Amino acid sequence: MTDSTHAWRFFRAGGFDQVRIDTAADLKSLAELDQKLWVALSCPVKGIEFDARSLQFVDSDHDGHVRAPELIAAIAWAFERLSNPDVLVQQQNGIAPDMIRSDDATGQLIKAAATALATELGKTGVDLLTVDETSAAQAGHAARALVAWEAAGAQALPLGEATAAAHALVSELHDKVQDFFTRCQLAAFDARAGEALNASEDAFKALAPTRLQADTQAVQALPLAHASAQGQLPLADGINPAWRARVLTLRDTVVTPLLGHKDSLSATDWQALVDRLAPYATWLAAKPDPAAEGDGVRDLEKLARYVRDLQPLANNFVSFRDFYTHQGKATFQIGTLYLDGRSCELCVAVNDAAKHAALAGLSGICLVYCDCARGAEKLSLAAAFTSGDSDQLMVGRNGVFYDRQGRDWNATISKIIDHPISLRQAFWSPYKKLTRMLGSQLQKMAANKSKEADDKLLASALETSKRGTVDAVAKPVAPPPPPFDVGKFAGIFAAIGLAVGAVGTMAVTLVGGLFSLFWWQIPLALLGLMLLISAPAVVLAWFKLRSRNLGPILDANGWAINARARINIPFGTSLTQLAQLPANAERSLVDPYAEPAARWPYGVALAVAVVVWYVRFRG
């Protein structure tokens, strides 16, 4: 339930109420705001335009998504660490040391790190430590810790640069060598154990039928060497073939440099080797973690980022203020696509166009998927076309995409989800369809006539060729064509005449009725006729345009949209800008290559006027 003690303020946008997050009290009270009133409950860390490092801090479970509880927890942590939480809504690019609370151990570490950084940079306690400076301090802390660790390693390298390889080899052989010396100790304890603890005759008989290689699992499982009460591990002969190469390397690179020349090792010698390499193992385990917090430095960076980014994140998560008020770009808007004389501001990143389109198609928005390239870099996006028409949108067309950093990308249309774009497109769509249909039919008729002419020409040429080489053999005479049946074709001719007469009568009646009106009524009648034709398409498009929804587009990218984020006609029109001449531009209407104006429409109009005059006054 919504907290009754906090006076929430909402604004209406996208057809639903969205909460305003303007004050620190608004941020703090988000934990008590009914989550049914949140626009989103989850957003991905990747594929959005927001500081990735800040999102990593908020994404506490590191699952790649920021959810409502994580945002609430981040806000609560920031309030605990700030002496004046109002700085969270003051759009500061960092934090001053004096703003940090130091009434607990964690706060003391953070403030100490801030004070040390300010001193290093020549700043005072009231000067701002920027996000970049705190990030560099965290990176510098890790680098300094690494340098100190590497310096300490000079005392832990008994073999110099070869120590790492020696330690790895001893670690690899440790369990096998310990197994060997334990067998030897048992053989010294009881002579009866000697033969039992070595490989039995049956074990070797089991290996005999198989194809043996030194590195097979069965050979590796055998003891390292023959165990005896003397407890000496040979370093040359008598070694298990699967381990012999590694034991010889151990002798030459580790035993000889550290213990001197030896043909065998005792348990005491082996422990001496382990002890000589123990400082290196301890030093290796102490290697600093680059992401370690380190004396509050990492928390200082975290707090500086929260001061800068928590309010903008909340206003692009709990509400979509930046998107619906045009105060800035929303986090899911990755740039602007320029294509077909338009600029599209609603562009979202996609990984798989086919998978994204399966859900995003439910948005009711005309989406154009583009593959973008900039050198070796690749990017896929979906752009919403919400103004103009789709006549020239087709797969393969090229445009230019500008990302939020101002970089330009080559963009090529790869897929289109067709939906109504504007009422203007819907109004003219019946006439465009009729024009395309008539054009297609005329093209077919012309193609058929051309084919008939070609066929006749070819048949004539073949007939002429045959006449020159006709055989003397008499050919059967073809039967004469049947006589013309007047009765059969009388009905056909009558039907055709009736159809032509009906069409002509309808045309004369329509035109006559039109010109029987007063002159000022004729434009109104034509306008009414156009509305009658276009009204169904416009009404259908109006309902579809009013129901456009941003939710499916973002849900397909991993968001959890919690509201019906509608994009109505006026707002949708503002998301796609059409090409317009500048306000003070000069324009010349003289086109030297303009096509000459056709004169046949004037002749048709004159003929229609004559017919109407005749019907009205002489008919």
Q: Going across the major beta sheet, what is the strand order?
A: 11-13-12-15-14-9-10-17
Described by strand count, sense and barrel closure, the largest sheet is: 8 strands, antiparallel
**What helical percentage do the residues reach?**
40-55%
Q: Assess the beta-strand content as a share of residues.
A: 5-15%
Tell me the number of helical segments per DSSP (H or I, 4 or more residues long): 20
Q: Could you tell me the radius of gyration in angstroms?
A: 43 Å
Q: How many runs of DSSP E, i.e. beta strands?
A: 17
The low-confidence parts are none
If you average the pLDDT, what whole number results?
82
Shape: flat
Structural class: alpha+beta
Distance N terminus to C terminus? 80 Å
Describe the structure.
This protein is an alpha+beta fold and 619 residues long. Among the domains are: 156-285, no CATH class; 332-451 and 510-579 and 604-619, no CATH class. Helix content is 50%, strand content 12%. It is built from 20 helices and 17 strands. It has helices spanning 24-28, 52-58, 68-81, 105-121, 131-152, 163-189, 192-197, 201-207, 217-220, 244-259, 267-285, 297-314, 321-325, 353-360, 423-468, 486-515, 521-546, 551-555, 569-575, 600-618; strands at 10-13, 16-19, 40-44, 65-67, 94-95, 129-130, 233-234, 264-265, 335-339, 342-344, 347-349, 366-374, 377-385, 398-403, 408-417, 560-561, 576-578. It has an eight-stranded antiparallel beta sheet. The chain has a three-stranded antiparallel beta sheet with strand order 4-3-16. Strand 12 (366-374) and strand 13 form a beta hairpin. Helix 10 (244-259) crosses helix 11 (267-285). The longest helix is centred in the C-terminal third of the chain and has 46 residues, at 423-468. It is flat and about 135 Å long.
